[in-house]
Write a structure and sequence with these properties.
By secondary structure, the chain is of the alpha/beta class. It has five domains: 2-37; 52-108; 127-297, Nucleotidyltransferase, domain 5, CATH 3.30.420; 309-370, no CATH class; 377-459, no CATH class. The chain has 19 helices and 15 strands. It has helices at residues 2-13, 18-25, 29-37, 52-55, 58-69, 79-88, 95-108, 169-183, 212-221, 237-249, 260-274, 287-294, 377-382, 386-389, 400-409, 415-429, 431-444, 449-460, 485-489; strands spanning 127-139, 142-153, 159-164, 189-192, 199-202, 208-210, 224-227, 255-257, 309-314, 320-323, 326-329, 338-343, 347-352, 355-361, 369-370. The strands form four sheets. Strands 1, 2, 3, 4, 7 and 8 form a six-stranded mixed sheet that branches. It has a four-stranded antiparallel sheet with strand order 9-12-13-14, with no helix packed on it. Strands 10-11-15 form a three-stranded mixed sheet, with no helix packed on it. A hairpin with a 3-residue loop joins strand 12 and strand 13. The longest helix is centred in the middle third of the chain and has 15 residues, at 169-183. The radius of gyration is 41 Å and the shape is elongated. The chain starts with a helix and ends in a 10-residue tail after the last helix.
Length: 499
């Protein structure tokens, strides 16, 4: 543009000839004429950016892009990943060339048109967007696919992540509880897709039939659920973009943790660290700064929602209920009865006649047998022989003293029945007391049910009071003398024996 300005000033302003200008500026006369005859200011623009180092390997990159286009969106490589793969193929150029080529290739693809959207603005505390994604991790040395719950406050852009083994309804409830605790409050609206755990039926427009249990969650936290139009991801575009960003920021390369609990603790920490980045709209401020301003606009949480999925099941004759391909024990007195099984993200609770009767940590494997030996104690009263080979009692974690007593008693012919008596004492008097009684029996070298129960009763008997020392000042000076004649005087002097 500087050269064009010189040409115009020298010819039109000073009247200098085209030949003189061309010789002085080392240009052709045709070029000088073109700039002088142009009706508008000519702007130089390259039709094609040269990429000499990429040219030799461009066909490989095009092949990869074609292959990635046939894969699901979450499995497609970013420009950065393609650049790293090209380097392994011998590419020595810059990343900018790869990024520019990928961008132009996507625009030139047949049938691809650029959609137009309206920028959205949300007030503080107005809305939060929710979505699921599938991520690959290694837990306990085993590769697994986890379900990642994404939350994003639309004003401050603060996000929250929680990993689960399922996308079931109880996981949805637990994710909301944890997200609202992390945010320190609840927004006015929650924006969703239309998953079956939330929406049961889709009608015309925005009308939906929400799941009744999910409506209980919304009623508890007092937020308005909003379901997007099917196949219209832009209605919750913030969390849709977050899914791709989180996969690149946090799950590439594959994460390794021992347990899901450790993974979730790390994710929560990373959510707070990533909030130090600049806000996408107000770039001079951080996400954390706007979140601090938005937090007072959120509705405070008074109590967490008891988000369980309930199912009525019958207890088998072996005192088990089957849930999610695993079996959990129930107290023997409920065998054959119908009970309510309440499953949440971490626990399995069994309720009978409105009262909780059993609770187990939830397992997500298959064909697992989760047993509580105490649930079978009433069976042992009638069948003490089951103590030796019964599955619930094989790896029973008993206190050391009680375990030693068990080993000693089971060596005798009737030892199983004797040890059942000790277990019954635990049910009546508690583990601590019976543990002390077993320790005393082991110290004395007399290990039997009778001796242990005797120690239990002695420990339960009240302690004799210590003797009271009476002061000498309270002693009588004249001790009274027994005199039966005083009774005769009350009868008028007639001896009692005459009557």
């Amino acid at each position: 543009m500087e050269t064009i300005g010189k040409i115009r000033r020298r010819h039109k302003g000073k009247g200098e000839s085209i030949s003189s200008i061309a010789r002085d500026l080392n240009l052709s006369r045709n070029t000088v004429k073109k700039y002088l005859n142009a009706e508008t200011d000519p702007v130089y623009q390259r039709e094609r950016q040269p990429a000499p180092k990429l040219g030799a390997i461009q066909s490989v990159l095009e092949t990869w892009l074609e292959q990635d286009a046939q894969r699901p969106k979450r499995e497609r490589r970013t420009a950065q990943r393609l650049f790293e793969d090209l380097q392994r193929e011998g590419y020595s150029g810059a990343y900018d060339s790869v990024q520019r080529f990928v961008k132009h290739w996507k625009v030139r693809r047949p049938g691809v048109s650029q959609d137009a959207f309206v920028p959205l603005v949300f007030a503080p505390g107005d809305a939060c967007q929710f979505d699921w994604s599938h991520e690959h991790v290694i837990l306990g040395g085993m590769p697994q696919v986890i379900k990642l719950a994404h939350f994003r406050l639309t004003h401050s852009r603060q996000m929250f992540l929680a990993a689960y083994p399922r996308e079931s309804q109880e996981m949805v409830f637990d994710a909301h509880n944890r997200a609202f605790t992390f945010f320190g409050g609840v927004p006015n609206r929650m924006i969703y897709d239309n998953p079956k755990t939330i929406v049961e039926a889709i009608f015309s427009g925005k009308e939906r039939q929400f799941n009744r249990r999910f409506l209980a969650l919304a009623s508890h936290y007092l937020f308005e659920p909003v379901a997007c139009t099917p196949a219209s991801g832009w209605e919750k575009g913030q969390v849709e973009n977050q899914v791709g960003n989180v996969r690149e920021w946090l799950f590439t390369p594959i994460l390794r943790f021992d347990t899901l609990i450790e993974l979730n603790a790390w994710l929560e920490t990373r959510c707070m660290e990533l909030a130090s980045r600049a806000h996408p709209t107000w770039k001079e401020r951080s996400i954390a700064a706007l979140f601090a301003e938005e937090q007072p606009c959120l509705r405070s949480v008074t109590a967490s929602f008891d988000g369980y999925f309930e199912q009525t099941l019958r207890v088998s004759s072996t005192c088990l209920v089957s849930y999610d391909r695993n079996r959990y024990s129930v107290p023997a007195e409920h065998a054959g009865q119908r009970v309510s099984v309440r499953a949440d993200a971490n626990r399995i609770r069994v309720v009978a006649h409105g009262k909780p009767v059993a609770e187990h940590a939830r397992h997500f494997g298959r064909e697992r047998l989760i047993l509580d030996p105490w649930h079978y104690l009433s069976v042992l009263e009638k069948k003490p022989g089951a103590l030796r080979n019964g599955a619930p009692f094989q790896d029973w974690a008993l206190p050391a003293a009680i375990g030693a007593v068990k080993d000693r008693l089971l060596k005798s012919p009737q030892g199983d029945r004797a040890f059942v008596e000790v277990l019954l004492a635990i049910r009546s008097h508690g583990t601590d007391l019976v543990t002390v009684a077993c320790e005393l029996a082991l110290e004395q070298g007399a290990v039997s049910a009778a001796v242990i129960l005797n120690h239990v009763h002695r420990l339960l008997s009240p302690v004799k009071p210590e003797p009271v020392t009476v002061s000498n000042a309270l002693a009588l000076g004249i001790e009274p003398v027994a005199d039966c004649g005083r009774y005769d005087s009350l009868r008028g002097g007639v001896p009692c024996w005459l009557n």
